[in-house]
Structure to design on (1490 residues):
């Protein structure tokens, strides 16, 4: 179990090594990066093998850090964190595979990528809110450079918008965190200590601090109406960065809500619950409708990410045991699937056709030119709309059941969102890959093939598909970790004691 | 048994080293025509470093901590730490100086830096109004000269003159305020003043005195609305002078300020709830600085002016530290000021080195720094992010402890609480212009791709500053623990 | 308890065939691909035959059950089971699927992909008929849409994209409603298993549990599940996706869609909606009866108006499927055991028979289309009887079977339905007769315009059935005669089951 903190250190060390290796050659940089990511993923899987699901956080490291503030360098893990750690490992490995052909400043690219990963691992392992915040912010700066240097459409604007929104969100969290600490007279910044201090605050203050914390974290999770950075930023980002941003980094926000905001202020959360739930369901449907009318392939995927994160937030808002379990499962599922979708759009299609406009793609018989990509995209799209057999289905089913237990109306609107998701996903599959029915063009396409899908790209895609299939057919592999973790008294306080 | 004067001399060993060093530098440089400019520069810098090292090794831990010489000096933790910090920053400045473009008067420059540092170290321990003023002025005079040192550029002369005029006026305000305090309390020693103020209640004359003192210090700290000198001085002064002005003088000035305000005028502080006293005024100044500094910086195209406005914004945040020192002590403020100083010295150092290869005034002059000198780009990355307050760098921890202290004073609904929230909110705005700098340095391709060669002393200085920022960020207890 | 997981084999054998095609197919020729597909598809018939041999019709309840724990958090089990209804439909699938493949033998474009998708579709349909827990039942239900979408879109006619899209969206939307309904059911009962839920409903415990959801939410649950199934059958007015989809799909796929996929919807009504929601169904029966009638009558009349032969057959499918639902709703609406038994028998029999006859009709239209090179309008042909007598004979038999001529299989089912409905809701039976009339009209028009009369210009060169086409139609024709004369063969499979249902009516 004590292998897990090494995922952080290995990632940062690898980041530095990749920077150095990049000075020698691109190949050295990318192999270093891949080795690092695989090492960290292996560590996670090894730890997962020995993991005994329990209801409380299992401490890995706990040393005093800033004595004056009562901050300890406290790392811990439970089933929820472990699920997300596995996701990070998979997404990181796949992301590096999909960036295999980066030629411009490869050392710096992989260094920034691995630094981002290290920060993400840190957030999922932190049990002290100060440490969590530090890792959260460490993850912000690499995002800017990844997008601004290697991105595509409107990259400088997209990068700045994404980073400023993230930072603004984290500023809200900082304010809330310090407020809770100072006003509650906490002895330190550990989760338990802050929780103890939080109850000393008068209720209106509790609501205010909760609102700060939740809004701050939810901005990063792309909650309506603070979501506008997400499509712009993800579209501007290079493929691997989009995969990571939509797949993993957005989950940091949801994780923060679940780990920090909700358990610290359960009463305030229950007070704000209807607002959060309605914003979440509106986000699901609204983002889905916007995705339906997009003309840029990548924007469709960007908006679909916002829509799926709406499901996560709905699950969190409903706060029944099944809804929360479904939310965490959906975090994993969407992380993998979003990675796949961006990989296909960014790497497989855009790199080769140099266009993302659906009107242009429609004229090309892409299913003939890029058959592997077509299959992967269809599979990813179906997984994304929650087709049973893939990981999205048990997640969405759990969220629907859990939400119905809390307020059936929310579940009904969410189901509407599923229909919209089906519509836009099918539309984009159809138009992009199977758009033309001109048989002559299709036949002619055989003579002008596009560069084939590389082995690295195939490996990345298959890795992610295997993950989503495995979890879709056997969701218990993750639910056995998540459900016990949700039985801790901390989360029980959040749930109103709904039926299991 | 040591006489009071013996005690004084022991306590003042750093100043003695520094002044002696300045004189030595000037003396050694007398046969100036027989040596090349490079040799003269290196010799002066070497002697200067020697003096600083001697001051540190021999001068600190000198004497018995506590009030000395009848309460004129106070060798408490704040004093010792500030002295050490100032000396360190001066070392870094000298390192950068060794890397600047050719100077016609290197010895004079080094001597002025040493003299200014002597003033700073004296400011750090002053516990008496007269000594405080003396130290402040001697440091400031040196700084005026330093600001106007570059005779080849009219902006430098303008900077020096502006700095001098503003400084002179503010010194007048300060002195007037001090004399009023003397009149009200009958003493110039801070402990006595503080007991006297506790006895006498508020009076209009006290208010006037406090306001005048605040004006004086506000100017020193470059806080709005006394900030007008800062952009021009930062833009016009030679880079190494600007480095010293922005870093060490802030550290020393704030140490003196906090010593004056909290133990000294503490009784007249009023309260955050608005009772009459200097606290509400400081709150207002702080808020004004934060707002003005951040918003004005957004519009800047000149990198030095941008740093100046960001300095104004940081001054506002540092003033929050001053406010919070009433509850949590000066540790947080010291940490923030020192690490801010390190980052600023570093930033100006990078600018100084870039100036060797051409002008560095516009932000776009930094374009493609990464290709031209990865070392400079990497160091600039660390410095700017520390200024922006991104963990795990020291700038973040500094802001964090200061804001936490402020919120602990009276809760969020107090004015200190609102200030902290304002500062946090503005830090998002600040990130924008800091990222603009980094964007030029790291993202945008170079307009002119000639590589920049970084001289060894400057490289050493920049790397040390960066390393210290990272070190203090990861182990804040190294500094914060001093004050616990 | 069988040691061999027969039902799992039935479901997954076609998928195994698809996997084989995926890896091996690229290296062998087109005919080899088609053969592999055909063989994999035949596996269903073989395995169903094995099941038939060991099947005991008099045992009410499920046989060959397989039950393993799967997802503990959601109380989901991997549960397959076979009773008379499922066996009937599995046999139907086993018969129809190879014939669909034979009808698609000449498809030139990428037969490997076609075969893979078709086998996926077949396996999914079998899964629907055998699954007894909502989780994997829904997996198969939705999964069947994917190959259908691609089969229609890629190998279909000019309007195929739009038709496929509409088809999938409709079904997905219905699926989402059903998903919501079952989510609520889980909240109320804590299980998603059909058998457990049916037991609860039979014991009268389900309705009170549902009532805990709130005042009007139980109705929402019922409507959700109803909508999901209604779209699939389809029930008027949710049928608008069907004519374009059936018309644009390639022949083999149309045969499967009408022969098997539409039965998934009716199966759902019988397996899920009726056992779980007897009272809401009873309450809604009059309204639903009218909708079914609408389908019957309007389907037939719309078919009359068509000039495209394929669309005509598509509309007639709506008509015939609505008979099944008519009977079911009539049974739910009233409660007389004799009539109910007759109606239910008729429904099941009609499902089987319609599968055969509609598939045959689509095959015939496909042959016409292949011969003419595209056009398949009502008025494009004439006098085919003289040019292609064998084909005319087979097609005629199919048509008359669909019409319900005594002696052919269609008659028995329709007769039982009408007899049952007449006993339960006489007025409905009367209105439905209009449908019969209209059906007769359009089928005879088809017969007359296409096969009789002067030989049309482009028709003279038509060749008669070749070997593959002959093999496609022959089994269907034989079965039509056989079941027309000896319907007991099939009725014996489900008679006890139907009797039990009728006896347990509230």
């Amino acid at each position: 179990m004590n292998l897990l903190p090494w995922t952080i250190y290995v990632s940062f060390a690898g980041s530095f090594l990749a920077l150095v290796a990049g000075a020698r050659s691109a190949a050295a940089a990318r192999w270093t990066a891949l080795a690092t990511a695989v090492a960290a993923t292996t560590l996670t899987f090894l730890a997962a093998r020995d993991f005994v699901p329990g209801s409380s956080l299992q401490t890995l490291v706990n040393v005093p850090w800033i004595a004056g503030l009562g901050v300890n360098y406290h790392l811990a893990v439970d089933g929820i964190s472990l699920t997300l750690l596995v996701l990070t490992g998979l997404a990181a490995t796949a992301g590096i595979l999909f960036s295999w052909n980066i030629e411009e400043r490869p050392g710096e690219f992989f260094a920034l990528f691995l630094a981002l990963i290290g920060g993400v691992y840190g957030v999922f392992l932190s049990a002290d809110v100060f440490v969590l915040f530090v890792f959260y912010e460490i993850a912000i700066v690499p995002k800017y450079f990844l997008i601004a240097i290697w991105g595509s459409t409107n990259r400088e604007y997209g990068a700045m918008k994404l980073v400023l929104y993230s930072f603004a969100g984290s500023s809200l969290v900082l304010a809330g965190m310090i407020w809770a600490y100072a006003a509650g007279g906490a002895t330190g910044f550990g989760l338990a200590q802050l929780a103890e201090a939080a109850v000393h605050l008068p209720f209106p203050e509790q609501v205010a601090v909760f609102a700060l914390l939740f809004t701050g974290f939810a901005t990063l999770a792309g909650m309506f109406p603070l979501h506008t950075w997400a499509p712009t930023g993800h579209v501007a980002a290079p493929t691997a960065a989009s995969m990571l941003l939509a797949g993993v980094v957005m989950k940091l926000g949801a994780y923060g809500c679940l780990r920090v905001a909700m358990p610290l202020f359960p009463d305030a959360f229950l007070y704000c619950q209807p607002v959060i739930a309605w914003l979440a369901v509106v986000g699901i449907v609204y983002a889905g409708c916007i995705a339906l009318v997009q003309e840029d392939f990548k924007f469709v995927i960007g908006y679909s990410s916002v829509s799926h994160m709406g499901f996560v937030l709905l699950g969190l808002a409903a706060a029944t045991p099944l809804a929360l379990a479904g939310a965490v499962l959906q975090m994993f599922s969407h992380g993998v699937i979003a990675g796949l979708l961006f990989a296909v759009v960014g790497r497989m299609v855009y790199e080769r056709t140099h266009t993302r406009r659906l009107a242009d793609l429609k004229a090309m018989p892409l299913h003939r030119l890029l058959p592997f990509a077509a299959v992967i995209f269809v599979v990813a799209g179906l997984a994304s709309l929650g087709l049973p057999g893939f990981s999205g289905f048990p997640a969405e089913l759990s969220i629907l059941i859990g939400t119905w237990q809390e307020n059936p109306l929310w579940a009904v609107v969410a189901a509407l969102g599923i229909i919209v998701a089906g519509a836009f996903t099918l539309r984009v599959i159809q138009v992009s890959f199977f758009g033309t029915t001109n048989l002559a063009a299709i036949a002619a396409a055989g003579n002008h093939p596009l560069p084939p899908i590389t082995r690295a790209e195939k490996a990345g895609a298959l890795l992610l598909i295997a993950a989503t299939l495995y979890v879709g057919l056997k969701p218990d592999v993750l639910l056995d970790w998540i459900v016990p973790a949700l039985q801790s008294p901390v989360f029980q306080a959040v749930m109103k004691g709904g039926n299991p | 048994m040591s006489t009071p004067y013996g005690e004084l001399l022991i306590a003042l060993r750093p100043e003695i080293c520094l002044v002696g060093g300045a004189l030595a530098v000037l003396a050694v440089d007398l046969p100036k025509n027989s040596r090349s400019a490079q040799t003269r520069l290196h010799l002066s810098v070497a002697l200067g470093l020697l003096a600083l090292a001697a001051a540190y090794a021999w001068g600190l831990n000198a004497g018995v901590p506590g009030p000395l010489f009848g309460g004129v000096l106070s060798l408490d933790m704040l004093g010792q730490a500030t002295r050490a910090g100032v000396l360190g920053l001066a070392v870094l400045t000298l390192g950068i100086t060794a890397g600047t473009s050719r100077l016609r008067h290197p010895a004079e420059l080094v001597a002025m830096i040493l003299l200014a540092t002597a003033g700073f170290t004296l400011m750090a321990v002053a516990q008496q109004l007269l000594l405080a003023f003396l130290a402040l002025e001697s440091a400031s005079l040196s700084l005026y000269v330093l600001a106007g040192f570059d005779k080849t550029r009219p902006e430098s002369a303008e900077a020096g003159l502006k700095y001098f005029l503003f400084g002179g006026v503010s010194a007048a305000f300060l002195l007037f305020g001090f004399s009023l305090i003397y009149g009200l309390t009958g003493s110039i020693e801070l402990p006595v003043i503080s007991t006297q103020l506790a006895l006498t209640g508020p009076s209009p004359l006290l208010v006037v005195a406090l306001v005048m003192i605040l004006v004086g210090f506000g100017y020193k700290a470059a806080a709005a609305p006394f900030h007008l000198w800062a952009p021009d001085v930062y833009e016009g002064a030679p880079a190494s002078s600007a480095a010293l002005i922005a870093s060490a003088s802030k550290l020393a000035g704030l140490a003196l300020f906090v010593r004056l305000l909290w133990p000294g005028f503490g009784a007249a502080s009023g309260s955050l709830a608005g009772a009459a006293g200097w606290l509400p005024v400081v709150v207002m100044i702080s808020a004004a600085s934060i707002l003005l500094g951040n918003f004005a910086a957004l519009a800047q195209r000149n990198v030095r002016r941008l740093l100046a406005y960001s300095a104004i914004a940081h001054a506002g945040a540092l003033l929050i530290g001053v406010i919070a020192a009433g509850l949590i002590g000066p540790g947080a403020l010291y940490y923030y000021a020192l690490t801010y100083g390190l980052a600023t010295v570093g930033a100006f150092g990078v600018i100084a080195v870039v100036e060797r290869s051409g002008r560095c005034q516009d932000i776009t002059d930094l374009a493609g720094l990464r290709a031209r000198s990865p070392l400079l780009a990497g160091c600039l990355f660390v410095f700017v992010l520390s200024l922006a307050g991104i963990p795990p760098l020291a700038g973040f921890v500094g802001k964090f402890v200061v804001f936490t202290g402020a919120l602990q004073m009276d809760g969020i609904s107090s004015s200190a609480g609102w200030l902290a929230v304002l500062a946090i909110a503005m830090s998002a705005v600040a990130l924008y212009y800091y990222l603009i700098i980094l964007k030029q340095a790291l993202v945008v391709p170079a307009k002119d791709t000639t590589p920049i060669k970084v001289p060894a002393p400057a490289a050493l200085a920049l790397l040390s500053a960066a390393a210290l920022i990272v070190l203090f960020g990861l182990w804040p207890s190294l500094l914060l623990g001093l004050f616990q | 308890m069988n040691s061999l997981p027969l039902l799992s084999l039935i479901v997954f054998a076609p998928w195994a065939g698809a996997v084989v095609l995926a890896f091996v197919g690229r290296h062998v020729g087109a005919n080899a691909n088609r053969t592999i597909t055909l063989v994999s598809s035949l596996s269903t018939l073989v395995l169903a035959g094995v099941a038939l041999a060991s099947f005991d019709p008099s045992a009410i309840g499920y046989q060959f059950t397989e039950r393993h724990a799967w997802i503990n958090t959601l109380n989901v089990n991997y549960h397959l089971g076979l009773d008379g209804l499922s066996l009937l439909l599995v046999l139907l699938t086993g018969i129809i699927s190879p014939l669909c493949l034979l009808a698609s033998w000449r498809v030139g474009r990428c037969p490997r992909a076609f075969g893979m998708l078709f086998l996926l579709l077949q396996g999914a349909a079998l899964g629907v008929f055998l699954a007894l827990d909502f989780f994997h039942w829904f997996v198969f239900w939705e999964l069947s849409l994917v190959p259908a979408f691609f089969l229609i879109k890629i190998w279909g006619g000019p309007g195929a994209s739009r038709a496929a899209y509409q088809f999938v969206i409709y079904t997905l939307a219905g699926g989402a409603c059903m998903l919501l309904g079952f989510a609520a059911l889980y909240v109320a009962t804590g299980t998603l298993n059909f058998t457990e839920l049916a037991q609860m409903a039979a014991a009268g415990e389900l309705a009170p549990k549902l009532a805990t959801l709130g005042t009007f939410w139980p109705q929402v649950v019922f409507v959700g599940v109803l909508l999901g199934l209604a779209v699939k059958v389809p029930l008027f007015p949710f049928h608008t996706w069907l004519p374009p989809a059936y018309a644009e799909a390639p022949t083999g796929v149309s045969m499967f869609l009408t022969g098997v996929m539409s039965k998934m919807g009716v199966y759902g009504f019988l397996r899920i909606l009726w056992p779980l929601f007897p009272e809401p169904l009873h309450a809604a029966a009059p309204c639903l009866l009218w909708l079914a009638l609408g389908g019957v009558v309007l389907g037939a009349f719309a078919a009359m108006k068509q000039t495209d032969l394929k669309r005509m057959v598509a509309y007639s499918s709506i008509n015939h499927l609505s008979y099944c639902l008519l009977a079911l709703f009539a049974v739910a609406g009233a409660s007389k055991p004799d009539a109910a038994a007759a109606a239910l028998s008729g429904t099941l029999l009609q499902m089987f028979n319609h599968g055969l006859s509609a598939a045959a009709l689509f095959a015939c239209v496909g042959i016409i289309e292949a011969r003419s090179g595209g056009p398949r309008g009502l008025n494009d042909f004439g006098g085919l009887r003289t040019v292609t007598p064998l084909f005319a004979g087979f097609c005629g038999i199919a048509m008359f079977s669909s019409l319900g001529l005594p002696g052919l299989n269609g008659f028995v089912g329709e007769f039982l339905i009408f007899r049952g409905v007449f006993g339960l809701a006489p007025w409905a039976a009367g209105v439905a007769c209009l449908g019969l009339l209209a059906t007769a009209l359009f089928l005879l028009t088809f017969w007359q315009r296409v096969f009789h009369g002067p030989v049309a210009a482009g028709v003279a060169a038509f060749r008669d059935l070749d070997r593959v086409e002959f093999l496609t139609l022959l089994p269907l024709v034989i079965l039509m005669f056989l079941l027309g004369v000896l319907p007991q063969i099939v009725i014996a499979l489900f008679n006890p089951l139907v009797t039990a249902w009728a006896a347990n009516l509230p």
The radius of gyration of chain B is 21 Å. Chain B is about 75% helix and 0% strand.
